[in-house]
């Protein structure tokens, strides 16, 4: 235990030290939010990967979906690598960097304003970002706290508060450059740690072959066993793959990584590094979670005793103290990197896109940085309150919180952002429609199923779970990809909007 405390203390001290170091090197808003748009491929790729994968994946999703789909949950990790990393970098990396630099957009709402010539779209999207990043932040706290309670005996509430304080310190001081260097260090820890943990956990059950055989012996009502290629429920497995993979294309904290990268050469290298990182970390997490049924008992209803979010902590508890310490640092690394990205995105959006326009020129760059740093503290405080509440409410499991957040954000933003990089024909009406449907479907689903305000609502459609916030989130993303081109074909751009679009697309000629 003493060794674990020393390792934890040294790790946190390093994170804060990096924040202090970059405090003097962060002089402008662009430096604070985007690192001056000078980051190389390795830092950007690791920042992308560590923002992608956190305690939400390692504890919440790996546990719940490993329980539901067995070894087939590994497909989620593969989808994250191919769709969420490789395809995202290939389709969006270069064009996002070129267009956002040309129109001088520092946030996603600012992109919507300048790409579609609409201040209203900026304000609405900024509110969506601030509101729906909060439940995702709460889910990150939730996952980490469950592991720390197991390892150190610290109560959930204290874990959340300590984590928020340390995240605030190094993000407020160092901004994007501090988070990028921290992300790189944290990413290295994640790569090494996940491999060591998988080997150790499987050895507890006699190795890979023996563990797969044991999964196959577990009775299942479906046609396939828990050790089969596609698992007992391939229909709902597809929903998980879509949400967790395609969702990154529309999340502001992920897409903004492309704003900051240095050049096209860096994007090519970053594509490879990011994909390999996702294969190891995401593939490893979901593969490990697939063996959760070997470490947790099922109750009479078929759910795990202790809840879905307790499955992975129970697995980790069986490891040696040294390896458990590695797990804690690994999950802390993943979670702090994700948290730093979330709070930086939220505070910069609120300051640049909402507060600054209201001040009408009274907010100079120095004051803007002060306001941005203040909102980091505000955002963390609000998310802490929600995280503590959700820990005491068994209905709000990690996967539900993430499904709500990703469903609303990616459902609203994915299609307008992606199409906006490629097509001159997308209209403001189409973007607004996508915002409304993305948030609307998510909120209505939350009231019906998560908050259970309609107790008699149907729960399934054939084999498809209607109650799953994951499936609802996947639906909003796909719906947006259909709605935007249809509404654009039915509506017209004004002459002013057409002229603005032509000017924006000159960014590719300037490359």
| Rg calc | 22 Å
CATH superfamily: Sodium/glucose cotransporter
What global shape is seen? Answer: globular
Q: How many helices in DSSP terms?
A: 19
Strand content: under 5%
Write down the CATH topology. Sodium/glucose cotransporter
- Low-pLDDT residue intervals, each spanning 5 or more residues: none
Say how many strands there are.
Answer: 2
Structural class: mainly alpha
Give a nutshell description of this structure.
The chain has 511 residues and is mostly helical.
Give the topology, please:
Blueprint: H1 2-23, H2 29-34, H3 41-52, H4 55-69, H5 74-102, H6 108-116, H7 119-152, H8 156-203, H9 208-216, H10 234-246, H11 252-260, H12 264-289, H13 311-317, H14 321-359, H15 365-391, H16 398-422, H17 428-450, E1 460-461, E2 464-465, H18 469-490, H19 495-504
Antiparallel strand pairs: 1-2
């Amino acid at each position: 235990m003493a060794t674990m405390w020393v390792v934890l203390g040294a790790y946190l001290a390093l994170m804060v030290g990096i924040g202090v170091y970059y405090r003097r090197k962060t002089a402008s808003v662009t430096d604070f939010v985007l690192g001056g748009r000078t980051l190389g491929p390795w830092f950007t790729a690791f920042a992308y990967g560590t923002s992608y994968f956190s305690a939400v994946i390692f504890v919440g999703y790996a546990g719940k979906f490993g329980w539901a789909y067995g070894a087939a949950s590994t497909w989620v990790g593969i989808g994250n690598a191919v769709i969420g990393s490789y395809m995202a970098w290939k389709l969006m990396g270069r064009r996002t960097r070129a267009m956002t630099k040309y129109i001088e957009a520092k946030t996603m709402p600012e992109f919507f304003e300048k790409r579609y010539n609409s201040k209203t779209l900026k304000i609405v999207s900024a509110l969506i970002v601030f509101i729906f990043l909060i439940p995702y932040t709460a889910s990150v706290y939730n996952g980490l706290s469950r592991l720390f309670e197991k390892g150190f005996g610290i109560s959930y509430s204290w874990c959340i508060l300590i984590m928020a304080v340390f995240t605030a310190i190094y993000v407020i001081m160092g901004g994007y450059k501090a988070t990028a260097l921290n992300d790189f260090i944290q990413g290295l820890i994640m790569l090494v740690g996940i491999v060591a943990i998988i080997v150790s956990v499987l050895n507890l059950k006699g190795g890979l072959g023996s563990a797969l055989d044991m999964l196959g012996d577990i009775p299942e009502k479906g046609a396939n066993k828990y050790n089969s290629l596609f698992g007992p429920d391939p229909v709902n497995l597809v929903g998980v793959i879509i949400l967790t993979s395609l969702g990154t294309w529309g999340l502001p904290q992920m897409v903004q990584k492309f704003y900051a990268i240095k050049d096209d050469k860096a994007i090519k290298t970053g594509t490879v590094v990011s994909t390999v990182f996702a294969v190891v970390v995401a593939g490893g997490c979901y593969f490990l979670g697939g063996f959760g049924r070997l470490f947790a008992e099922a109750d009479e209803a078929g759910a795990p005793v202790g809840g879905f979010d307790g499955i992975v902590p129970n697995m980790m508890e069986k490891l040696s103290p040294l390896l458990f310490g590695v797990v804690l640092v690994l999950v802390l690394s993943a979670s702090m990197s994700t948290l730093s990205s979330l709070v930086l995105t939220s505070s910069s959006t609120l300051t640049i896109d909402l507060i600054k326009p209201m001040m009408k020129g009274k907010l100079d760059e120095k004051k803007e940085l002060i306001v941005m740093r203040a909102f980091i503290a505000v955002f963390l405080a609000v998310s802490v309150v929600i995280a503590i509440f959700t820990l005491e409410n068994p209905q709000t499991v990690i996967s539900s919180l993430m499904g709500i957040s990703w469903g609303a954000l990616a459902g609203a933003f994915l299609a307008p952002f992606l199409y906006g990089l490629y097509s001159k024909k997308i209209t403001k009406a189409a973007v607004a429609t996508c915002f409304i449907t993305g948030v609307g479907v998510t909120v209505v689903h939350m009231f019906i199923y998560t908050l259970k305000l309609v107790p008699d609502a149907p729960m399934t459609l054939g084999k498809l779970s209607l109650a799953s916030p994951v499936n609802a989130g996947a639906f909003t993303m796909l719906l947006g990809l259909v709605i935007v081109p249809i509404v654009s074909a039915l509506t017209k751009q004004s002459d002013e909007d057409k002229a603005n679009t032509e000017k924006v697309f000159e960014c590719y000629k300037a490359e």
